[in-house]
Write a structure and sequence with these properties.
This protein is α+β, with helices and mostly antiparallel strands. The protein is built from four helices and twelve strands, in the order ααββββααββββββββ.
Length: 291
C-alpha cells in the first residue's frame, strides 16, 4: 500500500505570496517590458501631431444671393475729363500767389496777382480820354442839330467817342487780368509761377484738375465689338485701394478698328467716390457683357 505525503502548509503560503507579487507588477496583471510606458507616450504624441497636420482650415460664411456676370477684363491708366492749364492774358510781374499745389479751388477763386500799378494808370488815362470824347461829342451833336455842323464832322466825332470807349474798356480788362482766377473747380495739380518773376501770356502758371469724374481708355478686341454699347455697366478697381469697387459705364465707343492691333477704343467713365482715385493710377476695368 502506497503512502501519500501531505505538503506542509508553509510551502502553500510561500507559493501563494510569490504568485500575488508577480501579478501586482502591472495593472493588467502582465509583466511590463522596460521602457514600455515611455514608448506608449511617444506613440500617443506622434499620433496627435499627425492628426493636427492633417487638419484643413475651413472658413464658414453665410449663403448670399448675387448675380453671376460675364465680363471683359482690361487694364488702363486713369485720366481726368475736366482739366485746365492756367495762363495769364497779359505780361507782368508776379506779386502774390494765393493757392498752392493740392489746394481745392472753386471756379473764379483767385490764384495769383500781378503788379497792377501800370495797368491802373492805363485805365485812368483811357477813362479820361473817353470822358473828353464824350463831352466833345455832346457839343458837336448840339451844333449838328442846329445845322451848324456837317454830317461828316459829326460822324467823325461819333467814331472818336466809340474808339475812346473801346480803349477804356480794354484798359479795364487788362487791369482785371492782373487778378488771375481759376477757370474751373478742382484741385491745383501743379504750380509753376514764382513771386517776382516776369511772365508772358505763353507761360503756364497752374494746372487745375477736377477729380469728380475720371475716365479710363481701354482697347477692346474686335471680336467683342457687338457686345458693347453706350451706357453699358462696368466696374473699375485698383490693387492699391483694396476692397473698393467704383461704378463705371461706357462713355464713348470708337467705330474704327485698328488694323495693326485688331482692337477698338472704348472710353469708360468712372465715378470717383470720395475722390479716392487720382489721374495716372493703374486700374483694372471690368466691362460687364452678360449677367
Amino acid at each position: 500500500m502506497r503512502k501519500f505525503h501531505l505538503i506542509p502548509i508553509q510551502w502553500i503560503v510561500i507559493l501563494f505570496s510569490i504568485t500575488l507579487l508577480w501579478q501586482c507588477g502591472s495593472p493588467d496583471g502582465k509583466r511590463k517590458r522596460p521602457g514600455a510606458d515611455s514608448l506608449k507616450t511617444e506613440n500617443r504624441m506622434g499620433k496627435r501631431q499627425n492628426e493636427e497636420r492633417e487638419k484643413v482650415p475651413v472658413e464658414v460664411t453665410s449663403v448670399t444671393r448675387g448675380d453671376i456676370s460675364n465680363f471683359i477684363l482690361l487694364s488702363s491708366n486713369l485720366e481726368t475729363e475736366i482739366m485746365a492749364d492756367v495762363y495769364s492774358r497779359i505780361q507782368g510781374i508776379v506779386e502774390a500767389i494765393h493757392k498752392e499745389e493740392g489746394s481745392y479751388v472753386k471756379k473764379g477763386d483767385l490764384l495769383l496777382t500781378l503788379e497792377a500799378k501800370e495797368y491802373e494808370l492805363s485805365e485812368q488815362r483811357a477813362h479820361i480820354e473817353y470822358q473828353k470824347q464824350q463831352n466833345n461829342y455832346k457839343r458837336l451833336k448840339a451844333m449838328h442839330d442846329k445845322n451848324l455842323l456837317s454830317d461828316e464832322e459829326f460822324e467823325t466825332a461819333r467814331f472818336s467817342l466809340e474808339t475812346a470807349e473801346i480803349q477804356w474798356k480794354e484798359a479795364q480788362l487788362n487791369l482785371d487780368y492782373t487778378l488771375i482766377k481759376s477757370p474751373i473747380s478742382g484741385r491745383i495739380g501743379e504750380r509753376l509761377a514764382k513771386i517776382g518773376r516776369r511772365i508772358q501770356p505763353t507761360d503756364k502758371l497752374f494746372s487745375v484738375v477736377n477729380y469728380n469724374e475720371m475716365i479710363a481708355v481701354v482697347y477692346v478686341p474686335e471680336k467683342n465689338l457687338g457686345q458693347l454699347k453706350l451706357g453699358q455697366k462696368a466696374i473699375v478697381y485698383s490693387d492699391h485701394i483694396p476692397n473698393e469697387n467704383f461704378d463705371a459705364w461706357i462713355k464713348r465707343l470708337s467705330p474704327v478698328v485698328d488694323p495693326a492691333s485688331g482692337t477698338f477704343k472704348v472710353t469708360v467713365g468712372v465715378r470717383n467716390r470720395q475722390s479716392m482715385l487720382r489721374p495716372g493710377m493703374f486700374v483694372n476695368v471690368q466691362i460687364i457683357v452678360d449677367t
